[in-house]
Amino acid sequence: MQDPHKIRLEANRELHARPFPEIPANCRLVHLCVRVSPKSRDAVRTWLKARFSDFPEDFAGHWERTGTDNWVRIERHTEFVSITQVVPEGIQFTEVADSKWIDASPQDVLVLARVTAKVGGTLPDDAEAVSTLRDGSVIAASNFTADNAGFTAWTVIFDADPGPAPAGRLLQMLLEIETYRTLAVMGMDRIRAVHPVLQGVANHLPKEASVVQDHEQMISTLSLLAEQENQLHQVWESLAWRVGANQAYHELVFDRLTQLSAKGLDGFVGIRHFLKRRLTPAVSTAETVMRRRAELSAQVNERAELLRTQLQLNLQSQTRDLLASLDRSADTQIRLQSAVEGLSTVAIAYYGVGLISPMVEPFVALELKEYIKAILAPVVVVAVWWTLRRIRNRFGHNT
Asked: Based on the number of CB atoms within 10 Å of its own CB, is 273 exposed (0-12), middle (13-18) or buried (19 or more)?
């Protein structure tokens, strides 16, 4: 039986699928994201189970272990699984994010970051981008260059302790910025790899389809255009989803920065400005590749359509010439048939007179026998002509 509440309840569950965590303002976190797909989901679950013995078998997309020093949060997203874990005081980040366990991941590790959050304090000397958040009540600094252990580092300084819930929301949004800025440029190697394909199509694209007049050349050019269209379609199939996802992640990065009211701190490069200079050009490159592919596809289709039109016109011209030739042949055949019918009439009449004369001659006077053929000839000719005409007319009506 269909559940009338299914869609509504699923929509409500989706809204609460990934609630904001509650994290103290003074904390250290390790954030890890691993790629996941329907084929690798079981392998990733086994890998997580090896690290977290209490990880549930019926993982539904969100799991959180409570506790001050043992807090862990695991979330499943469309393309990845994120693991965020508290690093207790006195323990190194690498002890929590064990390199052997990470290296044993069945899929690519997309994000590996560490966060140091505190109330008051100073910024690290190696910060690459620094911004104020929440109208200056929070300072966030990031070093987007990975350290020797492979971590990118974030430092968050609160003016005052806002409490676990506000602190958790802010830290979660910063981790999302770190995650999405990586995913926004994922697959750039594949995107750059299609440049030679697009350039090859552009170099071999027929300049003027109307110049090609020979039928064989037009067929050859159409084959080339079909092959180019296939290449461009393969580019679209391989990159369309990836480029679209990158654009969405790029928008999410700056949407989070806007929500946090991020502004560059005086004397430092702001996080927004840093990512705008480093991240946006890569995403723009992907957009340019897809736009170039669309332009080439339109040109290929236009030239192919022109060639097909020209071929169709040529075929129509050839058909017209063929029909005209058939008409001339039909006229010739009709004239030849008329000539044959005339000769046939004469021949049949000749034989008819030859057959009828001997049958009539015994019944006429001797002096009139010379006139028998002269009298019979026109009668037989008319009879033969009339008979052939009726036969021709009858067959003509039947056809």
From this structure: middle
CA separation, residue 31 to residues 140, 151, 268 (Å) = 16, 9, 25
Listed by start position, the domains of the chain span 14-183, 336-398
CA distances from 149 to 93, 99, 145 (A): 9, 8, 11
Phi/psi for 30 (5° steps) reads -115, 130
Contact 98, 137 (CB under 8 A): no
Query: Per-residue DSSP letters for 305-362?
Result: HHHHHHHHHHHHHHHHHHHHHHHHHHHHHHHHHHHHHHHHHHHHHHHHHHHHHHHHGG
Please give the model's pTM, rounded to 2 decimal places. Answer: 0.73
Q: Give the separation between CA 319 and CA 237, rounded to whole angstroms.
A: 41
- Dihedral, 143, 185, 180, 86 alpha carbons, nearest 10: -50
Per residue in 189-242, pLDDT (tens digit) is 888 889 889 998 888 887 665 555 677 788 888 888 889 899 999 999 988 999
* Gyration radius (Cα) of the chain, Å: 45
Cross-strand partners of 76: 81
DSSP string, 107-163: S-EEEEEEEEEEES----TT-SEEEEETTTTEEEEEE-S--TTS-EEEEEEESS---
Residue 293, CB half-sphere, CA atoms under 13 Å: how many? Answer: 25
